[in-house]
Amino acid sequence: MGSSDAMARAVLIIEDDDRIRRIVSITLRREGLEVTEAGSGEEGLARLAERPYDIVLLDLMLPGRDGFEVCREIRRVSTTPVIMVTARADSHDVVAGLEAGADDYVTKPFVAKELSARIRALARRTRASGARPRVVVGNLEIAPQDGVVTRDGEVVPLTKTEFKLLAELAAERGRVLSREELLERVWGYDYFGDSRLVDVHVRRLRKKVEADPANPTIVTTVRGMGYRLPE
Amino acid sequence: MNPAAGRGAHPAVLAPPTAVGAAPSAPRLRSRLPGLRGRAALALTAVAVVLTAAVAVGVWVFATQYLLFQRQSATLGQAVANASLVQRGLPAEGLSRAQLLSQLPRETGSVSLLVDDGEWNTTSLRIGHDELPESLRTAVQEGIPSRQRIAVDGDPYLAVGIPLAGLDDAYFEVFPLRELDNTFRVLGVVLTLSVFAVAPVSAAVGWWVTRPALRPLDRISAAAAAIAAGDLSARIDPRDDPSLVPIAASFNATAAALEQRVRADARFASDVSHELRSPLTTMLNAMSLVEAYADDLPSDGREALALLRSEVRDFERLVADLLEISRADAGNADLVLEDVRPAALAREALARRAVSGRGAVELNVRSDASDVVVRADKRRLERVLRNLVDNADTHGGGLTAMTVERTPTSACIVVDDSGPGVPEAERSTIFERFARGSGSARASTEGSGLGLALVSRHVQLMGGSVDVTDAPGGGARFVVRLPADGGTEGEP
Known about the structure:
The structure holds two protein chains of two kinds. By secondary structure, chain A is α/β, with parallel strands linked by helices. Chain A is 39% helix and 19% strand. Chain A has two domains: 122 residues, 3-Layer(aba) Sandwich (Rossmann fold), CATH 3.40.50; 100 residues, Winged helix-like DNA-binding domain superfamily/Winged helix DNA-binding domain (Arc Repressor Mutant, subunit A, Orthogonal Bundle), CATH 1.10.10.10. In chain A, the strands form three sheets. A five-stranded parallel sheet of chain A has the order 2-1-3-4-5, with helices on both faces. The longest helix of chain A has 15 residues. Chain A is globular. The relative contact order of chain A is 0.11. The N terminus of chain A is likely disordered. Chain B is of the alpha+beta class. Chain B folds into three domains: 195 residues, PAS domain (Beta-Lactamase, 2-Layer Sandwich), CATH 3.30.450.20; 87 residues, Signal transduction histidine kinase, dimerisation/phosphotransfer (DHp) domain (Helix Hairpins, Orthogonal Bundle); 148 residues, Heat Shock Protein 90 (2-Layer Sandwich). Chain B has a five-stranded antiparallel sheet with strand order 2-1-5-4-3. The two termini of chain B are 60 Å apart. At the A-B interface, α1 of A face α6 and α8 of B.
């Protein structure tokens, strides 16, 4: 998949364990990514303020400001995709991390080489976005070419992943997309991703685009099947 | 990083199986005695019967003595009065002795006898000289007033003798005691019956009264049973029963200590597992990096790298399994039950296996089992299937078949392999931690040694069971049974 990503993606690794940070950084560089290292949450936020990154790899168990807090801080200032690294696959940590604004997660132990494909998938804007027409749902307008969603003419601040999720649903308007399809299209999972990723992102998306998130009319749930943008 | 962690963990894990098979069956000490409640009721009954019997005997003795005493005073009074009448009437106008006796005032049934100059007169044909005992006659004729119980034709009488003024003269009167005897008999029957009646009544009362008294015991046994079943948070609530407070306090303290220990053990295993994840991440990635240069290595270097890879992979699996089983030990707090179709999960498990490069194995779904639904934790059930498939591939000579079928009450997932099978003697121990079978393929050192233990733990948590038998083709057959939801109607 390297051909469509000729440009080197810039990755920021925020990880306090020196050995992991070094080996992951070496591996990702060998995979053609441009890597910057940060040993603490504060340092990571400082790096992020200096220049934009395409992706942030964030360890949740950081000394001082923990990963959740750092993640919320990143979300306040940027839409950069965040992949959180957790030692615990327990529901609490994963869901709490996603609620804090992370786009994806990996659990230790992970192999950085396999991670690079996911990094590229998340860093990509949208698939074949140029060919996609504008979509208007109620007072919401989705413009895939510009990567912008507006409500009554005002820009809705979506993260890249939230935007991709909405764009994929808009592209197949009226059709139900299963969680697995969405995992593949938005997150680049070939097999068996965690469907909680989709559910938490839909929840986050609804908070931003729906008039009443408890009774969604734009991103609707089709029980047992998936999600749909109604005609 | 501690290099000893990686080195130390492996040999310990691969230690030969200890004699886990010789699990001693607890000796049954339960006696044939009735239960506590039965014994309490029995004791109460015994006490009641003994007390009642004692009271009855007391009543009997007192009542009979008193009645007899009354009767004796009455009869004596009458006899003395009659004797003085006879004494006064003897010298009087020429009444015959018989006439004199017959005129005496007497109660019904009593008989008067008179001895005058050795001649006996009586008012009854049945009672005369011969019926009075010798000792009584002698005593009275010697001038000593006497009385004696006698029996005439089986009927009880009281004979009273009063000496008269003349030598050898005496007046006797014989009173019937039959009525008194009847009274005694009735009294005796009533008292005896009451003693017998007390037994069942007190037994019933005892049984009824001890129920609330022993109810606290039910609470204790319920709590103990809950702990034995694995619910370590079970406690005794003494509520408003002060007698239960001391035992509840000590029981609860014991249970709390046990719970804390088990939780601490589970947390320790979980913490160890988490701590190992960071070094493992570095090891995995460093190894993967070195593997990129494998082609440049000499052959012995490549072999060393292959060994390292295999150990690191095993270590990775051990860490994951250790975490998983410590979580299972910590209780079912994170058990998420939902409606799951075993057929769908089994198909996914086989798809995963195919992705990892193993030969394809088709899933057999018996008719009507395709949409059977069980209440299960999806993640755990996935893990169960993955571990069974891994077990078949690494220890059982390869997976040969996977089947989903349903019985009236459960859904079964059957996993067959082509290995040597599991000997009868090892079938109960194979699900224990770090148990390794003796079969040649099974004794291999691959895997964490926790895979089947996890299968067993997870299946139990979901209310199911797992066991191993022989597959028709000769290998081992693992059968997971999960209680089926009554979702599909009209099924047998």
